[in-house]
Amino acid sequence: NEGVALVAEVEEWRVDKRIQTRYLDEKESDIDAAIDRALEAKAAGKAVSIGVVCNAVHLLERLVERHIVPDTLTDQTSAHDPLIGYWPHQLSMEQAGALRKTAPEQYLEYAFDSMYRHVELMVQLQQLGATTFDYGNNIRARAKERGLENAFAFPGFVPAYIRPLFCEGKGPFRWAALSGDPEDIVVTDKLIAELFPENASLHRWLKLANEKIAFQGLPARICWLGQGEREKAGLAFNDLVRSGKVKAPIVIGRDHLDTGSVASPNRETEAMLDGSDAVADWPILNALVNTAGGASWVSLHHGGGVGMGYSIHAGMVIVADGTQDAEERLKRVLRNDPGMGVIRHADAGYQTAKEVSRENGLDFTNRIA
User: Which residues are catalytic?
Assistant: First the structure.
């Protein structure tokens, strides 16, 4: 979005990997130098991402000390896994690595104290004017458990920004070229752009993804598509395979973060209109419907970025192999999968979801009339 990103990462090899794969532009080892570089880029109007090798808590503390308030602030530390995923700011990397093995209970005490401070700083920067939101790693809940009463002062990103999209059945539509040939993704990118010519943000994303993101493993792409659009794209991919315009079948999936495939009270289903944040029926129904529809692979799993016991997610994959059988299954699965999300949000009382439900023949009352 043409902004400047300043990102803390405590493990240097991860910063180096992000630079190699073009997710990140620059690396700094000194916090003040990184902050200065970000301010310089902002003043120059230059879009750049800067990774600083440090603990996120130390970066936030320094921003506060220097009276520098970012426009937006979020966090993606692995707080859902306090033992293996989260690095306490009170310990060096060497100390933390050793303590994990020799005294895990003591390590957890450090981790929870660090999360308390981490969220406390985020709230402080929010109060100073930063638009602050949780990115779905359950760090607010960890801080709350530790005794920080205002840990939920800032919202999760789904109720703050994403829920209106979920009401339209929009979510992460993902595909990979089983040929292993990046040229097949070039073909699918072109097709997606042709299918949705009016979607300016999608066209912008496809251009940036091609420039900024290196393939890892099978060449793949992701974009956000809504009710009706996923089915349209999947059938078009099947035609590509059938006609030989791509060299092998295309496998279609999505993120576990989606409109109707999850119950996660601190992320996707936080602050639902009807209070149904923790109702776990919907991901189970989603898995059953996708199984009945003929998906190639369906999974039902716990965790999903917020930790075991805090969420249930249903996953889905379907292969477009160019056959008539695949076409029939794609019609069912790529209609029903996001459709469950539209129905879920309509059931919760969201007016947009009710309208999208009626427009797409998902409204139960109309179907039995």
Answer: 223
* pTM for the predicted model, two decimal places: 0.91
Average pLDDT by stretches of 10, the chain with 369 residues? 94 96 95 98 97 98 98 93 95 96 98 98 98 92 96 95 96 97 98 97 95 92 97 98 98 92 89 94 95 96 78 95 98 97 96 95 71
CB atoms within 10 A of CB 94: 8
Give alpha helix (H) positions in 229-299.
229-243, 281-293
Q: Tell me how far apart the alpha carbons of residues 37 and 195 are, in angstroms, rounded to a whole number.
A: 41
State how far the alpha carbon of 272 is from the alpha carbons of 45, 90, 186, in Å. 38, 37, 39
Query: SS3 sequence, 95-117?
Result: HHHHHHHHCHHHHHHHHHHHHHH
Tell me the residue range of the domain where 15 lies: 4-160
Q: Looking at residue 351, which CATH number applies to its domain?
A: 3.40.1770.10
Could you give the CA distance from residue 316 to residue 295 in angstroms, rounded to a whole number? 7
